[in-house]
Design goal:
Shape: elongated
Structural class: mainly alpha
Helix content: over 70%
Number of domains: 1
Strand content: under 5%
Order of helices and strands: HHHHH
Low-confidence stretches: none
Largest sheet: none
Mean pLDDT: 75
């Protein structure tokens, strides 16, 4: 349950940042902006969760534009559902979705770089432990 909540938080944050980076005025008040961002986080996380539960995740990851398309449709739906949140055209929804996908991708790249940087240290520790075990076997 924790990864789902973390994903909701991150997607909400990404939506806020993407809307603030967009030059067009899309919201009347900060309450409508927060409602749209929070609902986007919940809906996007729900779609990802359903794709995982239905064992569609490996297939969805191979389709490059799956996240872009689902995020675009979610943004367009939120433009109709939430009063005070305006989506002028589908191209703006695609642009917002593209920004959100880029921000989400940068998070994955950061975690991948962190794993790569920690790999040599783990290997050195395993080698050191193997030498200690080997020397203990030789002394017996």
């Amino acid at each position: 349950m924790y990864p789902f909540i973390r994903r909701i938080f991150l997607m909400t944050l990404y939506m806020l940042l993407a809307i603030l980076c967009c030059s067009s005025q899309m919201y009347d008040s900060y309450w409508s902006l927060m409602a749209a961002a929070l609902l986007f986080g919940v809906m996007s996380s729900g779609v990802s969760f359903l794709a995982t539960v239905a064992y569609l995740k490996p297939y969805c990851q191979k389709v490059v534009f799956f996240t872009l398309i689902t995020n675009t449709f979610i943004i367009l739906i939120l433009g109709k559902l939430i009063p005070g949140f305006h989506v002028a055209s589908s191209s703006i929804a695609v642009w917002l979705s593209f920004l959100i996908v880029l921000m989400n991708g940068s998070k994955y790249l950061y975690s991948l770089c962190k794993q790569i940087n920690s790999f040599p240290q783990k290997t050195k520790m395993k080698l050191a432990n193997a030498k200690v075990i080997r020397s203990q076997k030789n002394s017996l």
